[in-house]
Every structure is written in C-alpha cells, then in structure tokens.
Amino acid sequence: MARQKKLTHLGAQGEARMVDVSAKPMTEREAVAAGCVVMQAATLEIVRKGDAKKGDVLATARIAGIMAAKRTHELIPLCHPLAIAKIEVDLTPNPKLPGIDVRARVKVAGKTGVEMEALTAVSVACLTVYDMVKAIDRGMRIEGIRLIEKSGGRSGHYRAKE
C-alpha cells in the first residue's frame, strides 16, 4: 500500500495555511497542462476560419490563458505569487472532437512549482473559447483539464499516464 502524503496546506488543527517556502532552494520548474473544448463541427469551422462575431477566438483565448497564469495567486487563495519566466498557451483545432485542444506550458526559476499556473492558463483559455462562441453553441463542453507533466523541485518529475 502506498504511503499517504501529508497535505502541506493544512496546519496541525486542519486550518488552511500558505506553505513556507523560504528555506527551499531555487530550482528550475516547469509544468504542462491540457484540456479541450468540445463543440459542434459548424462552430469549430467558424472558429477555424476566424469568423466569430467577437473576433479571433484562438488569439484571444491564448492571451487570456497567459494573463490568467500570471494572476493565479490572485485566484487560488494559497498560491504564491511567482516571477514566471515563460508561458506558452497553444490552441489547436481538432476535427475529431470536434473542438479545440488547449495546452499550456509554464516555467519558473523559483521555490515552488507552477502546476496551478499551467492548469489556470488552460482553464481560462477554455472558458474564453466558450465565451466567444457561446451565442452559436451553448452546448459546448470543457473537458479533461489535467496536469500532463511537471519537473523540478523536491518531488521531481511527474508525467501523467496516457
């Protein structure tokens, strides 16, 4: 049986707390997250052609994801503010869904990881896609938001099983 890990955001009495990272070493850390927006094929074609009434859906969602990653500490109560070194948000039309695949990669040299920043980038990029074309397809679904990979820090490398 696997050993249960201690939850670091809980104090001795179970109270929420921000983890003290002051003694941790600065290391290069990176996280990749992914998710998707499933939509009607006709909606995907509008997005792909750039014909949405609100403008360029993919460019707007990319910028929204980047901005969200930078502000994660303002959205998730116990996250540390980070000096993020790199954020990539890729949105790829996928006719097999049909929909948009969203992937974010976030990198920092710091004392804590960037998993939440990558997950936030994907979440907000997906929400932005939904917002920009909801008038033509209210049945869209945001699915599969998850951590794909992380590296750096004491816990080392993690890669999700496919």
Q: Summary?
A:
The chain contains 4 helices and 5 strands; from the N terminus they run βαααββαββ. It is α+β, with helices and mostly antiparallel strands.
Provide structural commentary.
There is one protein chain. This protein has helices spanning 41-49, 57-70, 72-75, 115-133, and strands at residues 27-38, 86-94, 99-110, 141-151, 158-159. By secondary structure, it is of the alpha+beta class. The radius of gyration is 18 Å and the shape is elongated.
Furnish the topology, listing elements before pairings.
Layout: E1 27-38, H1 41-49, H2 57-70, H3 72-75, E2 86-94, E3 99-110, H4 115-133, E4 141-151, E5 158-159
Antiparallel strand pairs: 1-3, 1-4, 2-3, 4-5
Helix pairs in contact: 2-4
- The geometry reads as elongated
Radius of gyration: 18 Å
**Helical segment count:** 4
Overall pLDDT = 92
Return the structural class: alpha+beta
Q: Kindly state the number of beta strands.
A: 5
Which H/E pattern describes the elements? EHHHEEHEE
Roughly what percent helix?
A: 25-40%
Biggest sheet record = 5 strands, antiparallel
Distance between the termini: 23 Å
Q: Uncertain regions: pLDDT < 50 for 5+ in a row?
A: none
Q: Which strands sit side by side, in order, in the main sheet?
A: 2-3-1-4-5
Strand content: 25-35%
